[in-house]
Hints:
The structure holds 2 protein chains of 2 kinds.
Chain A: H1 12-28, E1 34-38, E2 45-47, E3 54-56, E4 60-64, H2 70-89, E5 93-94, H3 95-108, H4 120-134, E6 143-144, E7 151-154, E8 157-162, E9 168-172, E10 190-194, E11 200-204, H5 207-215, H6 218-221, E12 224-228, H7 235-248, E13 252-255, H8 260-272, E14 290-293, H9 296-301, E15 307-308, H10 314-329, H11 331-334, H12 339-351, E16 353-354, H13 370-381
Parallel strand pairs in A: 5-6, 11-12, 11-13, 13-14
Antiparallel strand pairs in A: 1-4, 2-3, 7-12, 8-9, 8-10, 15-16
Chain B: H1 14-20, H2 30-51, E1 57-67, E2 74-82, H3 91-97, H4 118-130, E3 134-139, E4 146-154, E5 159-168, E6 175-184, H5 194-204, E7 209-213, E8 220-222, H6 245-253, H7 260-267, H8 273-283, H9 299-311, H10 327-333, E9 340-347, E10 351-353, E11 356-367, E12 379-384, E13 387-389, H11 397-404, E14 424-431, H12 449-501, H13 505-548, H14 552-559, H15 564-585, H16 587-593, H17 596-683
Parallel strand pairs in B: 1-7, 12-14
Antiparallel strand pairs in B: 1-2, 2-6, 3-4, 3-6, 4-5, 7-8, 9-11, 10-11, 11-14, 12-13
Helix pairs in contact in B: 2-4, 8-9, 11-12, 12-13, 13-17, 14-15, 14-17
Amino acid sequence: MVKYAxxxxxxxxxxSKQLCDKILTDLEKAKRPVLAATKCSLDNSQYSPGxxxxxxxxxxxxxELNVTSVQKMSRAIFMLEILLRNVGTGGVNTKxxxxxxxxxxxxxxPELKPLDFDDQSESDSVIDFICEILECYREExxxxxxxxxxxxxxxxxxxxxxxxxxxxxxxxxSKLGTSPFMPKNRPQNLRLxxxxxxxxxxxxxxxxxxNTIVANGMTRRHKCIVIGAQGVPSNAxxxxxxxxxDQLEVPIFFFGDLDAYTLQNIYRxxxxxxxxxxxxxxxxxxxxxxxxxxxxxxxxKYDLFAYDVNAGDASxxxxxxxxxxxxxxxxxxxxxxxxGLAKILEWLIENRKRCEQQAFFSVDxxxxxxxxxxxxxxxxxGSYV
Amino acid sequence: MAKKKASTITKxxxxxxxxxxxxxxxxxxxxxAVLTTLKEAVDNSLDACEDNHILPEIEIKIKKLGAxxxxxxxxxxxxxxxxxxxxxxxxxxxxxxxxxxSSKFGKGRCSRGQQGIGISAATTxxxxxxxxxxxxxxxxxxQRKALSCMVVTDLKNNKGIVKDKESVSWDKPHGTRVSFQxxxxxxxxxxxxxxxxxxxxxLLNPHMxxxxxxxxxxxxxxxxxxxxxxxxxxxxxxHPHTMKLGExxxxxxxxxxxxxxxxxxxxxxxxxxxxxxEIMSNSGWKGKGKSALISSLSDDDFKKIFSGVQKTQLKAxxxxxxxxxGEDALALSIQRLGATDYFSVVSRKPTICDMKPVQVEVAIAxxxxxxxxxxxxxxxLRFANRVxxxxxKSACAIVKAISSVNWKSYGLRQSRGLLxxxxxxxxxxxxxxxxxxxxASKETIDAADELVAEIRKxxxxxxxxxxxxxxxxxxxxxxxxxxxxxxxxxxILVETLCRILNAPKKRKERAELGLKKILGRDHKETEKQLxxxxxxxxxxxxxxxxxxxxxQEEDSLLSQDDESTEQDxxxxxxxxxxxxxEAENTKGLKKTKASSKKKASKKVAKKTTKKxTKKVAKKVAKKTAKKxTKKVAKKTTKKVAKKTAKKTTKKxAKKxTKKVAKKTTKKxxxxxxxKKSSKKKSxx
Lengths: 385, 684
């Protein structure tokens, strides 16, 4: 069986030292050490409808020590030392900060100058490489990305957070006024409870639209949670939605644009994870999320404004091409379980149309609640995939 | 209702047409006017010299006389002087003042000038912008005095008018000097600059010596490097398949007194008795048969014969009318552009493209002065019949061919469909008696598929030769990078690992040793690869040397008497090779004019001229070969020497210690044995 469980933070120092010891022993024997990392790409992705998220296949990327890889390996071991220090002391850093920490250390020690990074992308790839070798989340190495997206609004949700010092903080979202709750990069530390039974959770692609429907009173009128995804969901959003799914057991709906990019890059990542993060999809995907819209049938039913895909726009054409590739190669869209989603992609390729989520506001320009009404109607009608 | 006014139809002369459309012949801007005037004057001089077997000595003077009458222009005086045969007084107004008066029009020879438009257009430009014509000074061989005059164009009648005619004394035995004063703007640098034109001319005319003086510059003199006047093969009769019906009929009327079969055989190339019979049977025309007089045939008869010609399969046109510079001369000539650290020249065999004979030559050089210029596209020098083309390059067949080659596979950087990038010069010369230009100013060669494919082939051969050098360079760089990597990263990697593990010193030392061994293996592998690349390159250089050292051996003959016998043989074989290759080119000439005396005199002339050029060739070949190999050789030998020294000392030390150990153990063993035996003896 393919392994998709990841390491816990407590295991990391031991595993790292084991790895270093193996490299050193190999070197002593004048034997080339080999670092094997899980291959994180679509061709090594597997999708099982039972699990509901993308898991890594058996392919490994092996890096053997030679003249060309000696720099990469030296950088990885150098960065590993810094990360292990952080894990030991409880220090936390972002990728950007780690880049500057490395720059500082390299500046202080001229002998280490050959390891110097030209830009942050180089140090980022070294961090990712370490995660792939150790098969752990970046967060387990106390390295966090900037929090983005996931603004959550609800009148009935209570979040309990256990702090690193053991203290417990309780956050009642109904008492935050107009401010949303922002999930952190490590939502696994959060516990959720509902004051009253929550009917559904709505994840909206556009953060602005999520704000609008909350401002218009949706969360006051209905027992629901509204989340703004802010484009491609970050780890925080993915982990947070997964938490809601597991702990609250409420139906979750995603609402976004009707185009290939939204389906492939935003919705698929939220529901089943991504090929680039195969080792973390288990805790960072919510397989029960359903696609509420915009659906192709909505265009007719609500007479929505739709645009033709601009053949002169390279990015739009690229997304159509990627959609075609996805139907052929992406195990998520090839699965029978997701036949409905694949049909939407086929429709997009065939009709070359795109429709934005805000188009629902055009149905009745005088009614500010029209968006909310349509969403509820769709949920009641079961008009989702 | 008013009557419609009848429009009057007027007739205008050729000169009037060109005077109103000078942009069509290269005078579209003040900058181009200077270059076109220079180009036309130099082309005429070179053609005249070559036609009369004179080694050209050209002198160019360009002066700024003040502000021009047109806005943003200077009044420029441009003078070109040659040592050609000179012009007689009747020819002067026709050459410089009359349009379409040419000795070469439609003759199908590889001459620079073709239609007789260019220099007359220069006179018209001078007339229009400064109200002066072309000032001429010319003297033929044997004349005491030279003719000095001013030629202007009578535009209405398309005639040259001679003014201020006088006889003057000129110390030159023969030659022509033409001087124009006109409004123009002088551009020296860049692809469309005067200097680029001069460089191009120097590259493709190794037999030309040039003296030039440009504003704010000292006089420059560039000596010829070949003493051989290129012999332009005579024009061959047209190939029947290159003609249209109208041309076919008018061509026939030039042979009115001939019989049909005689006209077909003499008037066309590739037509024999057998082919005539075939044409007759294919045409289905019986009429008066092949012995009918041309004058007796009607247009309907010609139509039938023409269809017979079209149905008949003929041999492709002959390539004998094509003449190229040759790889040897190009190799020498390229050195006149500046110091090169590498060059490659390719001269393709003449071939047929679109039923026309064509020969393509390519020279690729990396100039030392441009080595830092690695981010810009290569500079392209285009030539058509040895004339540099400097404008409208994007649509040109040469540029299309260069862009279509995948230079990445030869080690150059290139974005798809664009010119490659790097400090190189790519010179491509297309030679043909019928080059298809896109415009009358002859700046762009039409990109016909067959021609582009032929140019591509030449470029790819040159690219292949270039890639050998680049591969060697790449391997040398890789080796250097690898040695640096070993020195840089091995201590860091081991030290960090030991720090994480708190490993003892012994482990650290062992790991460092092991790492060096591992990386050393990679290093050795690269060294092997470099050695292979070196070997291939040296083979290539040796081949190149052989090709370009035709003269080298002979030269050394003179200086080294001791090795005379061996070198005599080599020179003889090389001489034969040179003769055979030349024989291929000038077969047509020899067939018609060959006489034993001429052959003998030619051989003597060749030998004498070769000797002079070989000296230069020798220097060039030596320099390039030495430069490239020395650098790498030094590096690698140092490294290898160090390593081997280390190894040998280690081995020696090991061996000596082993030996000493063995000896001592043996001695101690012996001692112990003797002690034991003595003890035993004593016991006994």
